[in-house]
Amino acid sequence: MKVDPMGKLLFLLAWITLLQGCCMCLPEPPKPQYGGGVVRNADFSAGLRGWSAFGYGSLAEGSSPAGNRYAVATNRTRPYQSVSQKVLLQNDTHYTLSGVVKNVSSGVADVRVVVKAAGDFIHAGGVAAKSGCWSMLKGGLTTVSGGRAEIYFESNSTADIWVDSVSLKPFTKEEWSNHRDASASTARRKTVRLQATDSAGNPLPGAAVSLETVRNGFPLGAAMSSEILRNPSYQSWFASRFTVTTFENEMKWYSTEPAPGREDYSVPDAMLEFARSHGIAVRGHNVFWDDPNQQPRWVQGLPYPQLLAAASRRIRSVVARYAGKLIAWDVVNENLHFSFFERRFGWDASTAFYAAARMLDSGSTLMFMNEYNTLEQPGDMAALPARYVQRLKQITGGYPQNGAGMAIGLEGHFTAPVNIPYMRAALDTLAQAGVPVWLTEVDVAGGASQAYYLEEILREAYAHPAVQGVILWAAWRPQGCYVMCLTDNEFNNLPQGDVVDRLITEWSTAPRAGTTDAEGFFQAELAHGEYKVTVTHPSLNTSVSQSVKVEMGSGSHYFIQV
């Protein structure tokens, strides 16, 4: 598909501006993105024209000493009483949505934007707005059918809400796809020049060059169950596709210590050996889980001293056992939604666990927060992207020095219809943390559109430069998978499996061959990854093979001496 250069430029400039405003306390609102899109009087320069009070509230006009004008939803007694505007939505269209809000209450207020359409109330985004400053709110939605709709804001506080710089910008599915493809090309591919030379360093024109992919640079994997230890078909199917995995349940506390002091690591040990023997990297999942219902039964009712001893034994046991053998740890799972250990040990329990894990595994292993609904559900205020970043900063003590070695894990348990514009907005916000981002447990609830939405999610993740890997939550078991399977019980692909195979092929570089030019150069556009490059030249009657790694930020000029 062709990409309109000016449209692409405007899209990228708006994206960069949005990134700059995310997660910051803004002294003044920036201008509306895309000029407000379909929103009229988006910057309130014409006062309140085009805007009205929602939910029998009151609306006033405000202005700053610098002359900026905005709307004030005042005299609020209900969460939904705020400022609103009626708009006309198009059929089957992606919309990006943004705005800037100010919380004038004390503390932090949850503010979200809602689109009322055809009797439905669509949560399109939210922000944890700090007191006394302007906060950027980002989100989006996808329409199925068009028609009249109304945008409004709501908050868990009844204090006044100030609103400015509202934008609702439509993109056709084709426009969205074109922008995504352009971003993926920039983030995941590079044009490289290989120069063949003789032993004296002279260029070799007319040398034959062939390239073969050794390993794809983008980690795409799937969860693995212990069934793989006794099923050769499962082993063959899995190892031929994936470069990274997470054990579904086998490394969790309730699996490795079902009774106090009775530890058994035989199953995860065997799974780790299988992965190692096939060159598959492993994420450690998990050291602790903050959900009280996911503790080993014997842990749940322990008094403080015994719980402290048990938790200390757990982290020393599992992290030290696998130190240096894993690429990541989910140290405290789901500590935005749950707080089992914080309630027992204090508000800084997670901070202590992350520090201990880093001491026990001090290499390059990434330490992840791992959370659900941050990408999937804009209506879940507990898991807002801004709230995720805030929690990450609490754990690390702020950025950038103490954030080293930390990473963002986004589970990604989606239901149809998937809000792709919100997913992109959430990734934009999270990218500002400056740490690696992974999608760690991706699945889509069953239905006719399951495979379609899986492909959309994976393409969106692949195109975003902050995302450094994806794990599918599709561990095979004969009685069925958690939510989404990729194959049947004979390991024939289901439509979801076909999507995965197609993308693995698309995101890899097919074998290439050619000859060097008059200056000994061979040029090719390659997906990031590791390649075996073989160069032969008739006059020298010899060939040389060399490993070449193509990565973001690395050079693009390689010399091969024949």
From TrEMBL:
Family membership noted in the UniProt record = Belongs to the glycosyl hydrolase 10 (cellulase F) family.
Organism source for this protein?
Oryza punctata (Red rice)
Pfam (any one) = CBM_4_9
GH10 domain residues: 208-503
Give the keywords, sorted: Carbohydrate metabolism, Hydrolase, Polysaccharide degradation, Repeat, Signal
Protein name as annotated = GH10 domain-containing protein
Tell me which domain of life the UniProt entry assigns to the organism this sequence originates from: Eukaryota
What PROSITE patterns does the record tag this protein with? GH10_2 (PS51760), PROKAR_LIPOPROTEIN (PS51257)
Residues folding into a coiled coil are none
According to its UniProt entry, the protein's GO biological process terms are: polysaccharide catabolic process
PANTHER family in the record, alphabetically?
GLYCOSYL HYDROLASE, OS03G0201500 PROTEIN
Q: Which residues form the signal peptide?
A: 1-21
Any GO molecular function: endo-1,4-beta-xylanase activity
Keyword Hydrolase assigned: yes
S-adenosyl-L-methionine listed as a keyword: no
